[in-house]
Amino acid sequence: MYTMETMRQEIAAAVEKVRALKPLAPSITNTVTVNFVANAQLAAGGTAAMIYLPDEAEALAEAGSSFYINVGTLLPIYRETVPLAAQKLHALHKPWVLDPVAIGIGSLRTELLSLLKNYPPAVIRGNASEIIALAGLWNLSGGTETSNVHGVDSTDTVQAARLAAISLARFTGGAVAVSGTVDLITDGRQAVCSYGGSSLMESITGCGCSLGGVIAVYSAVASPFIAALCGTAAYNFAGREAERHAAGTGSFQLAFLDALYNASPKDISLTQFTPEEV
Ligand SMILES: Nc1ncnc2c1ncn2[C@@H]1O[C@H](COP(=O)(O)OP(=O)(O)OP(=O)(O)O)[C@@H](O)[C@H]1O
Ligand SMILES: Cc1ncsc1CCO
Ligand SMILES: [Mg+2]
């Protein structure tokens, strides 16, 4: 168990380590936000590599320190690529992050997300509706059988996903980060609410996707819980900072990357978060 003080120390240490080591966190991610994911990973201090083909996934699962799988826009080749990557990561005991974007839409997405239960990710990151639906698909408490996911956006509150997040974290032995106005991060034993960000983050695409990629970067140097908390705190810091400089959604995206790049270990570790009952 972490105290609030040790959480802050470990977050600051993770931010510093990533900037020193530049860990490679390869991604299988959607074509909508692939560029934003790579740029956010670089802004945090990590190294990015985006993958489509099965043999490349296996090679980069070996080469990387961690990995990111986001099922936002599936292509037929992912029927091979995603399972191969997950199997390899599981066999190598490497941390990987799952974003179950738009869970419930289409048969390939359901097939892949069901199968990934066999190779549990270190961190699951999603909006509230996605977390509830993944717990449902994996038959865990707090989940619902029918998905409330409408396209890629959430229709549930973060607190409504609390039990689903806790049961997913207990099942994987890792952590879950539920995003929204106030984010919830849990490892199944403790939970933290993280504050900050900006409502403009809902008006651009890819803040959630890229947060998953950045959590994968931090997973290379920290426990799943600290990595999830560190990524979320970095986003809450950078979002709030970017809003002060943005004229609208276009300049917000640029200001957000600048803020993420310029954020110090203290800026990130001193963001507001509070413990929650589990
Ligand atoms: N209203 C808000 N106020 C403050 N921060 C927010 C708000 N909405 C989202 N965020 C922040 O935006 C980031 C992404 O969360 P969000 O829930 O929008 O993900 P998402 O829906 O999966 O995004 P996408 O699928 O477009 O990538 C998180 O860091 C979250 O804290
Ligand atoms: C808009 C969109 N559509 C599929 S993935 C994606 C990025 C946000 O999840
Ligand atoms: Mg999303």
TrEMBL record:
Name of the protein: Hydroxyethylthiazole kinase
Gene Ontology molecular functions: ATP binding; hydroxyethylthiazole kinase activity; magnesium ion binding
Keywords in alphabetical order: ATP-binding, Kinase, Magnesium, Metal-binding, Nucleotide-binding, Thiamine biosynthesis, Transferase
Presence of the UniProt keyword Metal-binding in the record: yes
InterPro entries documented for this protein: Hyethyz_kinase, Ribokinase-like
Top-level taxon of origin: Bacteria
Family: Belongs to the Thz kinase family.
CDD domains: THZ_kinase
Reaction catalysis annotation: 5-(2-hydroxyethyl)-4-methylthiazole + ATP = 4-methyl-5-(2-phosphooxyethyl)-thiazole + ADP + H(+)
Lineage start: Bacteria, Bacillati, Bacillota, Negativicutes, Veillonellales
Any Pfam family: HK
NCBIfam families per UniProt: PRK09355.1 (NF006830)
Known cofactor(s): Mg(2+)
Known function: Catalyzes the phosphorylation of the hydroxyl group of 4-methyl-5-beta-hydroxyethylthiazole (THZ).
BP terms from Gene Ontology: thiamine biosynthetic process; thiamine diphosphate biosynthetic process
Gene3D superfamilies attached to this UniProt entry: 3.40.1190.20
Species per Swiss-Prot/TrEMBL record: Megasphaera vaginalis (ex Srinivasan et al. 2021)
Binding sites annotated in the UniProt record for substrate: M50, G206
Functional pathway: Cofactor biosynthesis; thiamine diphosphate biosynthesis; 4-methyl-5-(2-phosphoethyl)-thiazole from 5-(2-hydroxyethyl)-4-methylthiazole: step 1/1
EC number: 2.7.1.50
Residues engaged in binding ATP: R125, S179
